[in-house]
Amino acid sequence: MNKYKLHIVFFYSTLFSVLSSCVEPFEAETQQFENALVIDARLTDEEKQHIVLLSRARSFEKSDSSAEQNATVKMIDDVGNTYAFSENEPGKYVSELVFSAQQNRSYQLTVETSDKQTYSSESIRTPEVAQIENLYVEREINDQGAEGVSVYLDNTSATSKYFRYEYEETYKIIAPNYDPFEFDILYYVACDPDRWYEVGIKARTEQKKVCYASKKSLEIMQASTNQLSSNELSRFQVRFIDRENYIMSHRYSILVKQFTQNLEAHSYFENLNKFSSSESVFTDIQPGFLAGNIISDTNNDTKVLGYFEVTSVDEQRVYFNYEDLFPGETLPPYAIKCTNVGNPQLINRGYHCDGPFVCDGDCDSPLIEAILAEIIVFSAENENYPEDFSGAPYLTLPSPCGDCTKLGSNIVPDFWEE
Amino acid sequence: MKNLILVLILVFVSNWAIAQNDTIRVSLDYTEAKISDVLQSIEEQSSYQFYYVDAWLGDQLVSGTYQNSAVQQVLGDLFESTILNFYILDNEKIVLTQNNIIYDELPNRFFESSKQRAEQITEIDNIGKTLNPVFFADEQLPRQLNIETVRIGKETLNDQKRTYKLSGYVKNAKTGRPIPDLSLVVKNRRIGTVTDENGFYEIDLPVGENLFETKALGIESQQKRILIYNEGQLDFNLNESIEQLDEVVVEADKAKNVEEEITGSTTIESEETKDIPMVLGERNILSVATTLPGITNAGEGASGLNVRGGKTDQNLILLDEGVVYNPTHFFGIFQALNPFVTKGVDIYKGNVPAEFGGRLSSVFDITTIDGNDEKFSGEASIGPVTANLMLEIPIAKEKSSLVIGGRGAYSDWILNALDDDALQNSSASFYDVVANYKHKINENNQLKVTGYYSKDAFSITSDSLYGYSNRLFALNYKHKFNERNNGSLILTNSEYAFGIDFDGQANNDFELGYSVNETEVKLKFKYLWNDTHTIDYGLSSKLYSVNPGFIKPQGPESIISPFEIAEDRALESAIFLSDNIRIGDKIGIEAGIRYSFYMALGASIQGVYAAGQPRNEATLVENVTYDDGETIETYGGPEFRVSGRYSFSDSFSVKAGFNSMYQYIHTLSNTTTVSPIDTWKLSDSNIKPQRSNQVSLGLFKNFDDDKYEISLEGYYKTADDILDFKTGAQLLLNDNIEQEVLQGQGQAYGVEFLVRKNSGKLNGWLGYTYSRSLIKFASDFSEERINGGQYFPSNYDKPHDVSLVANWKFTRRYSASMNFSYQTGRPVTYPIGQYNFNNSEYVFYSNRNEFRIPDYYRLDLGINIEGNHKIKKFAHSFWNISVYNVLGRANPYSVFFVSEGGEVKAFKSSIFAIPIPSITYNFKF
Asked: How far is A269 from A275, CA to CA, in rounded Å?
């Protein structure tokens, strides 16, 4: 159902681009600010130490939120069990015990801040468990006409109707221009008039050819079976990877987490998403204060941001190789262009020394500065390198072309299966 | 007869026997005697018997002495100063006639057709001795019951002329002052004259019957049948006139603004708007309306008009009396009305005539043209967006005609021509067709049938198709019962629908739809009681049927479950009565009352909510089921439509009005502007009708022979139970919509100033409005409150609004036009901070509409070139070259915040950020 809204956005953007509209970013200024408490709390049915994050809203001019410290955080269930939380990092409150949200139980969150303001959530019942039945990938041309791979999900659910999804994708990166040799700076004392700088090459000691990178979903993704003939989702598209996207060049894995929600939580996240996605560009949905399920006990009019989500979680992972879906086909282009071979000067043109302390020009070595900044990697020796040190001794490439650690980590994740 | 003066009448009788057969002589002596007494004396002296009507003789006193005079002589003298003639029949009977003569021989060619005779009469040389009798019994003039017949002068046998001079004075009946510059027209003769500064006139009238009519602005027009027999005098005492509203509208009387009783009304003729530069050269009467004070919209690209601080759903837009739910194409950028077929629009934003009702803010009464019933003609245009063709086809000469108009956009190729992959699969198109048939059955019966259909369809990707459409049918049968009574029977049906077809890769293909349909029967009558009262009355009844939404799976694969919200039905009826009263020439009152009555009908399931609790899922007590046709809830009440005018002079008046309205159907929209997928919802047991009251006061002054109009109007309006929605409400396919609806109060006030120049080389208008529009949603429960229950500005509250529309005619063929507008930026809800939640940044909002986007201004220029006026040319052409937004100002339309990749980004958008040139070619044939 959300799909049609999405298309309206497309329509409007199309129409208005035709009609020469313009959408331009601007630096937002705070007109009026309210220092509201933000409660980011989630209790799942996983046996673990749960986390509650407390912070304060900030103005547009500030880049970081201030943590809300020294608060008393508790979760209380409907049979009187209290789970205390303690602050182990500023603003990060971790439950002292390992516990999980139980079926047929309700939980309430209470927070007392250091200024003696108390906040409490509604008592929220754990939604029923629903399983991800199947997570699978298909090569296809999507509704927008782009070719790629869709990640689909089917689930089974008895009564639950509302789901929120998060994913973490992990993919193997192979540096296309990996070279077993790397630069070795033999001598570099900037502006030393007595000795020319020297750069050599040496065998790599660390594996930088194959890496793994992970990314978490940042957008709110939800599904509901409200319009469907059963409570089970089928072919719900979690992710679409364009075939031009390098992340699926070799082996790709996605872990999808399904959070079963109740209607209130679903509406809250849906509205949060509505107010903060480009959907509101032209349809211009009337925004307003989005009340969550936590209120201030001290003052009814105090705004509280955030939500206390009680949820049942299920997760599933799927892997695929590019070769499986695109056998024999060319790989997607790499993350960056690796055809621009560079040849930085060892010594800046114009830098010359007529004697000790009589040097003129910029003495920084373009080659060595780039190596130190880790923006280039060794590609080949320059065969046309003149003897007088005035040229470029090596041909170079942007570092991600030969060093995958620029895009990921060379440590194989624990879960990774080949 | 009462003041009878006793007169001694000495009668000397001598019985002279006269040989000649026709000379009976009498002797009489009378002073200050009444004619009847003289006649009696003659009867006593002779064998004559007089035949006459007593009233003809009047109170005139006569004197005379006759010795043995012939009766003919006596009578000749006696009647000389009167308009009486006599005829002696068989020496016994004397027949008196008023004005005319009894002829004892028929004139030549009497038995030829009267038409020929009429011609012949006018050909007769007035010096000639030919008999020139006046016949009127079979003249070709319509006998109108209320036209007084006046006989002037006495027909004489000797001095028979073709024309006689009629003169007299025209005076104001009330003040006794002479009325200058009043035209007196002889309708059947095509002659006329004008009174001078003393109110004196002189005209040569052809003998016989003349249908005389007085005409002057602000003066009641009077008709008299004048039978002229000789020179004479006729004075007129005239009252100040009452222009009946419908006449005013049709004739666009130039002094209308001063003379009309109702406040806050405007007329726009479609033809007049052709010079005003518009987006992409598309004539748009609704956009032109926004240049007038009191009418605005939320911005470019926002369909829907806000009239005097009212919501966009509070306008009743009628096309030949049928309701058009969405009169725009392309999301409000173009009008969905064919400009060639549209005659014009009467806009009522203050006092609304009692015959209209059902929407709070305004009535846009749009009429289509009446086709040319004499010859085939048409009009066509080609512009950058649309092509348009209109044909007027006579069916029966001077009796019936057909108008057909079709208009379509060919914008698809624009989308495809753009070198942008994202747009390759897009298409957007629209069209509208309109036709009307007018049939004049006879003098008293007339029929007009109108059909209209407009459709917008657009698809962005290969998998979705959106569409919305308006359909309308209207039948208007007019009957004239007599000179004073006429009536109309109006039958209309209209439907607005939208739908979405989704056909994508996943198995969730669906079809979604919505429609609202209404059928109305209306009977209205007009009774021209007398010069003081004109009464309009009637009744109407409207049946609504709304399909609030359905979703259906498309294709066998689809897992979408079919869902449909049950149809809503309701009956809205009204009786209305209004009296236009003119008391003298100074005071005019339009007093109207409308009683509207609404019944929400089953079958339906209505939620009942716990009293004193916010309405939500938790407080739903039960669902009550109503059977088909069962009354769920009734609403209704009187609506007062009263306004009055006091004229200080012919060109200066003050008007005041009070207007109250009910509205039973509402749009559900949680966007700040209007979108085509907004649905309409009928009032039911949980959603009450909206009500409003408005008082207005205006000063109206015309200068320089009505060349300039100046008006200053103020209003104050309150509204109750207007709708708004909870933050983030889901409105489509929601069968418990009442849980999302908030009903609150509105308040709007403003001052509107308009200067208008209607003729001359330079014409146009300048309008300035200061207005506020505030709304309030208070409740005991925070979830049903907005902005803490305090009044706050509505989305379209734009305090300052200036519009200048000007047209300069260089020559007959070339003219330039401009349109400038300035408005205060509209209120927006701006975030009050940002925060981190669930690994992402978000902004949060507080009170609604506390900030404003920057002010809006725009200048459009256009050049219009009329083709040359060669008579033999096949078509008359008209070029329009215009540039919209010449200054290229990127007027902000909205400000929004997006969380992208975990970060908040702020954007502002504008719709027409650069100058948009266009060229349109029109031709008439």
From this structure: 10
- Phi/psi of residue B174, each to 5°? -80, -50
A295 in B contact zone (CB under 8 Å):
no
Rounded distance between C-alpha atoms, residue A9 and residue A5, angstroms: 7
Q: Copy the structure tokens of residue B281.
A: 């050269």
Q: Report the pLDDT value the prediction gives residue A37, as an integer from 0 to 100.
A: 93
CA-CA-CA-CA dihedral for A97, A103, A108, A111, to nearest 10: 30
Task: Tell me the three state secondary structure of residue B390.
Answer: strand
H/E segment holding residue A39: strand A37-44
Which whole number is the average pLDDT over A103-126?
Answer: 93
Average pLDDT taken over every residue of chain A: 85
Q: Residue B408 carries which side chain, given as an amino acid letter?
A: G
Which sign, positive or negative, has the C-alpha torsion A395, A401, A402, A408? positive
DSSP B35: H
pLDDT in tens, B715-748: 999 999 999 988 878 888 888 899 989 999 999 9
CA torsion sign for B737, B740, B744, B746 is negative
ipTM score for this prediction:
0.84
| DSSP state string for B172-210 | ETTT--B-TT-EEEETTTTEEEE--TTSEEEEEEESEEE
Q: What angle do CA B846, B849, B853 make, to 5 degrees?
A: 120
Q: With an 8 Å Cβ cutoff, are B907 and A59 in contact?
A: no
Residues 730-759 of B with CB under 8 A from A: 730, 733
Q: How confident is the model at residue A414 (pLDDT cuts 50, 70, 90)?
A: very high
From CA B246, how far away is CA B840, in angstroms rounded?
Answer: 63
Q: Decide if A13 contacts A281 (C-beta within 8 A).
A: yes
A244 and chain B in contact, CB less than 8 A: no
Interface touch B844/A290, C-beta < 8 Å: yes
pLDDT given for residue B673 in this prediction:
63
Give the 3-state secondary structure of residue B814: strand
Residues of chain B neighbouring A144 (CB-CB closer than 8 A): 422, 425, 461
Nearest residue on chain B to A143, alpha-carbon basis: B504
Question: How far is B582 from B588, CA to CA, in rounded Å?
Answer: 4
Could you give all domains of chain B from N- to C-terminal order, each with its CATH number?
25-98 (3.55.50.30), 114-238 (2.60.40.1120), 348-924 (2.40.170.20)
Is B423 in a helix, a strand, or coil?
Answer: helix
Q: Six-digit token pair at B246?
A: 């419908």
- Cα separation, B848 vs B884, whole angstroms: 32
| pLDDT of the residue at B194 | 78
* Interface touch B845/A289, C-beta < 8 Å: yes
pTM comes to: 0.73
- Give the phi and the psi of residue B268 in degrees, each rounded to 5: -125, 125
Angle at B116 between CA B114 and CA B118, to 5 degrees: 70
Q: What is the torsion angle, in degrees rounded to the nearest 10, for the CA atoms of residue B144, residue B147, residue B153 and residue B154?
A: 40
- Type of residue found at B641: R
DSSP secondary structure of A133-188: EEEEEEEEE-TTS-EEEEEEEEEE-SS--EEEEEEEEEEEEE-TT--SEEEEEEE-
Partner-chain contact A3 B508, CB within 8 Å: yes
A vs B, Cβ pairs < 8 A, gives 264
User: Rounded to 5 degrees, what are φ and ψ at B7?
Assistant: -125, 140
Cβ contact B837:B785 at 8 Å: no
- CB-closest option in B458, B506, B675 to A235: B506
